[in-house]
Specification:
The chain has 240 residues and is an alpha+beta fold. It has helices spanning 6-13, 36-48, 82-93, 200-204; strands at 17-22, 51-56, 102-104, 107-108, 111-112, 118-120, 122-127, 130-135, 139-143, 157-162, 168-177, 184-189, 193-195, 209-218, 225-233.
Length: 240
């Protein structure tokens, strides 16, 4: 009813919310186990929209190997399921990530997923746990999914993990705030770590940033580059 997705709506009320019982099962099909991808998406979005605690729903202890037997219901099953595997992979990929960060890992070693990011001035290819970027004439623009929940006052920098960061000749990040159609440049740099330079007016009267664009220029030819992580880091940027 708000025009935003469920987690974006909840996150607007509180930036440190929790889920008391979580399972990615579609309740319209209670006997069908959720896929690995469904559970991956759930953990990714819970984290990126500010959830700070998740309590899993598996109170009766049904094991995944019981799927399909009489009386089995997927939303009370956890051990031996693809959801449990997605959780373990999530714990590895998000280990030591600071509270308040937003992180896209583009799937996992078990899943290829663009995490809703798209490309222009070039193309992208999803591989397990990575995006392969194919620049066109040395340039590529990544656009995030819409309806993000980015609070400028809470984020200090953006970090791109590329296989060949020395090929970056320049990076520009633009942002679009809620209720606005235009884009504003919020970061510039040459390397894979860029400090945000949020407009002062955005910090005085904060409004949610709903979408980002990352324009990258690559030196040399149009050889592909592999991006394995993209993080918005809440830690302040310090001079060396």
């Amino acid at each position: 009813e708000t025009g935003h997705n469920l987690f974006a709506t909840i996150g607007r009320f509180d930036d440190a919310w929790a889920v008391a019982e979580m399972n990615a099962t579609d309740l319209r099909r209670p006997t069908v186990l959720p896929t690995y991808a469904q559970s991956y998406h759930a953990f990714r979005d819970l984290f990126n929209y500010g959830a700070r605690q998740v309590s899993l729903m598996a109170w009766n202890g049904s094991h995944g190997f019981l799927a399909g037997r009489p009386g089995y219901v997927a939303y009370t099953s956890w051990r031996g399921t693809s959801g449990e595997q997605a959780m373990m992979d999530f714990l590895v990929s998000h280990a030591d990530v600071p509270r308040g960060a937003l992180l896209w890992t583009f799937g996992s070693p078990r899943l290829a997923d663009a995490d809703g990011w798209t490309a222009s001035d070039g193309t992208l290819e999803s591989r397990p746990g990575a995006l392969v970027l194919h620049p066109a004439r040395g340039k590529l623009v990544l656009r995030s999914p819409g309806d993000l929940l980015v609070r400028p006052r809470s984020l200090g920098r953006a970090i791109l993990k590329l296989d060949a960061p020395d090929r970056l000749a320049g990076v520009t990040i633009r942002a679009r705030r809620e209720g606005e159609s235009g884009w504003t440049t919020v970061a510039r740099g040459r390397g894979p770590s860029l400090a945000f330079d949020w407009p002062a007016a955005w910090l005085r009267a904060p409004r949610i940033v709903e979408q980002l664009e990352i324009a990258m220029a690559f030196a040399g030819d149009d050889a592909p580059a592999t991006l394995t992580r993209l993080m918005l880091d809440p830690r302040p940027v310090r001079d060396p």
